[in-house]
Amino acid sequence: MSIIVPVILCGGSGTRLWPKSRPERPKPFIPLVGGQSLFAQTVSRFPAEEGFAAPLLVTGAHLRVLVEEALEGRQAALIVEPVQRNTAPAIALAAHRLPEDAVMLVCPSDHHIGDTDAFRAAARAAAGLAGQGHLVAIGITPTHAETGYGYIRRGEQLDGGFAVERFVEKPDPATAEAYLAEGSYVWNAGIFAFTAGGFLSELARHRPEMAAMVAEAVAKGSEADGAFVPNAESFTRVPKESVDYAVMENTSHAAVVPAEMAWSDIGSWHAVQQAREGDADGNWPGERGELVDCRNVMVESDGPRVSVIGLEGVIVVVDGGEVLVTSAAGAQKVGTLKGAKGE
Amino acid sequence: MSIIVPVILCGGSGTRLWPKSRPERPKPFIPLVGGQSLFAQTVSRFPAEEGFAAPLLVTGAHLRVLVEEALEGRQAALIVEPVQRNTAPAIALAAHRLPEDAVMLVCPSDHHIGDTDAFRAAARAAAGLAGQGHLVAIGITPTHAETGYGYIRRGEQLDGGFAVERFVEKPDPATAEAYLAEGSYVWNAGIFAFTAGGFLSELARHRPEMAAMVAEAVAKGSEADGAFVPNAESFTRVPKESVDYAVMENTSHAAVVPAEMAWSDIGSWHAVQQAREGDADGNWPGERGELVDCRNVMVESDGPRVSVIGLEGVIVVVDGGEVLVTSAAGAQKVGTLKGAKGE
Questions:
Q1: Measured between CB atoms, which of A293, A304, A311 is closest to B322?
Q2: Does domain B4-264 have CATH number 3.20.20.80?
Q3: A302 touches chain B (CB under 8 A)
Q4: Do the Cβ atoms of B26 and B14 come closer than 8 Å?
Q5: pLDDT at residue number A210
Q6: Could you tell me if A321 lies within 8 Å of chain B, comparing CB atoms?
Q7: Given CB atoms, is B148 within the 8 Å cutoff of chain A?
Q8: β partners of residue B154
């Protein structure tokens, strides 16, 4: 089996994790679960002895310094996008920089995976299918009727996975319940494996204009200071589209590898709370919290002491002079706050 | 009718209003309801044109500077206690500094009274009864089955009030409900009227040792910098006891004047919340709060923005680098927090 090249997409953002996640220090670069940042956890997931090549990172110009700092000297190739064009063009850039038969394992840089062994096993299965010409999604076996993710329905069994029957949009609660009960749906986690040549070939088939424009941006691109930078003028004209819409939902070679790997996209403070292990009362007071008569209360503070009395299911985040107090459900709306919008 | 001398007791403290109330700037001196501090509201309650003499303030040495600042040039006599000995000795000090027939109107300095006219009417009725030889409590007509206050049961009708049948301790919830339903109980608000001579006479009858020791501390006391200071050595030997225990519960001349005057002892952040007028959702965001999907949420902040999502009945107080988040019921326990205890 050919070596697997981790392609790590680091686009930044994460306004729902405000006030800790901010434009100048976004979500991938802050420690949210365990001592390491999500970015550091991601790059640590691919040691050479487990059969992974050094990762190829695709990031934005505004994040380059943060990325290089967070690499802490680890070997990695870097592609710096002059503007961000969503995941399909970002992955196409990476594919152009790799041999045709290299297996790309595309991963976001801001997810948490609790079971690394299960992840690597799924990655190897996906790489195997990719080597046979499939474009493979690693799908997460649902643990609850989540409405915040897209789902993938599996079809006929393949060697190490399944053909994809179809991709479906984020469901309403009743539909999510039905998917969970039905048993053949997994969450679309945005983790994919395919060969570089296979991806570019399918991109050219389903998005010929995008494929041509990215190829032009690469041809006119330049290597500088250890990073590859596509031509800005060309790349700016590339349409914004996700890999799901541009390729995965259109290709007739889609496959899925289901995995149970304690995955979370850490998409909100409630997701952070769920990924952390609380005490016997479900509380997570951190170093600065004093909790009295509380259950399932999480405190995150960059300094000020936080005293909480008589509450259940509440999250308090104090950072950079901002105070956020939210219910678990309310955590989804953090991005709409004035502070999170920079107002 | 003789003139009424407001005797304002200013002992400080207020740990249940931490983190805004602190040892160096306790409860009476912070604006909690309306723009003025509770102390300023108290001294403003007694204008000369309404028949009140300049107030006589009894405070501790550690609060003298705060008291003098908060007076803002208003005329007032000052007694500075070298140590604090609870309310009976404090009132006895004041009584010694007044003519025998002066009517003292004893008030805490840290209560809120929403209806000043009703208060003054009750004060005049109480003063009238005091002039007839009664020791009078102004009792608050209960609005709910409160367990945090002592109660007074009224007896036979007098001119402008009632004889006291008995004082009762803070009740349990069932007893409080019974008091409320029964209709002849009022809350003991710690507001009293009596003549100076009448009070000292009853103190001598029921607490002869305390009366003698206070008299000695006054005789050996000194006037300095516009304040009277009882002799420290003598006053330190005076036992600590409240006026309720030492005199009011023992005298056979106790009377009570019921009043409906939108009174609150502002005994907790929940009491502050109740004394303030919220918006249509019961929210009080203040100047620094952004509330989304909230009901009955109050935010008090000395600077940092406070964003709250999806909560009901929660109080957030940010002050001096401390963050407090509590339920209404939890507000009673604020004094037990490490921060409030200065740890």
A1: A304
A2: no
A3: no
A4: yes
A5: 98
A6: yes
A7: no
A8: B164
